[in-house]
Amino acid sequence: MEGQPKHLESIGMKIKGDTVIVTAERSEIIDFLRDSNNIIHLLPKDKISDYTSSNEMCAFKVQGGVIISLYQDGVEGQDVLYMKSGEKSPFPFRLSIVMNTVTEGTEGYIQFDGEVNTFLKLMVERPLTSLFNFMSEKLKEQFSS
Fold first, then answer.
1. C-alpha distances in Å from residue 16, one per residue of 4, 96, 113, 122, 127
2. Angstrom distance (rounded) from CA 104 to CA 88
3. Residue 46 falls within a domain, yes or no?
4. How many other CB atoms sit within 10 Å of the CB of residue 73?
5. 94, 95, 100, 96: which is closest to 79 by C-alpha?
6. pLDDT tens column, 75-112
7. Is 58 within a domain?
8. What is the pLDDT of residue 35?
9. What's the CA gap between 111 and 96, in Å, rounded?
């Protein structure tokens, strides 16, 4: 926007979480993630509250009172599952859960693509990276038995 302070201009922000190996087929993981009711199992229970969900969406409050809403946004074969931000989220974003078959099962990571201002980027980049890495580890645990 013309005349808007530089730190309030929206910029693209990408975050790629750690790659993990899950001992499950991609189809099992996709089936699990396509039901948004299952997302609660991947979140840090001590850092979220007010979780609500249906098959197509989930919403929760993170520390600091920010509400995050996620909606299912399709799949690309069995390689990528997409989720997008809902109207309650503080900024627009899309999550991609990217998966590849490996000998041990499925290798994958979470990628975030969002539009935030420079000031917000400084505040949310590290916590979001930690959250995505936590979620990846919980997904790995979900299928280890």
1. 29, 9, 9, 16, 13
2. 38
3. no
4. 14
5. 100
6. 998 899 999 999 888 899 999 999 999 999 999 999 99
7. no
8. 97
9. 5
Question: With bands split at pLDDT 50, 70 and 90, how would you rate the model's confidence at 119?
Answer: confident
Tell me which residue of 29, 24, 54 sits closest to 42, measured CA to CA: 29
Rounded-to-integer distance, Cα 131 and Cα 119, Å: 19
Is residue 85, in this structure, part of any structural domain at all?
Answer: yes
Asked if the structure places residue 41 within a domain, the reply is no
For 1-26, the pLDDT digits (tens) are 455 666 567 788 999 999 999 999 99
Task: Say if CB 141 and CB 21 are below 8 A apart.
Answer: no
DSSP 3-state of 20: strand
pTM confidence score: 0.88
Query: How many domains would you assign to the chain?
Result: 1
71-77: Cβ within 8 A, 24+ apart: 71/36, 72/34, 72/36, 75/30, 75/34
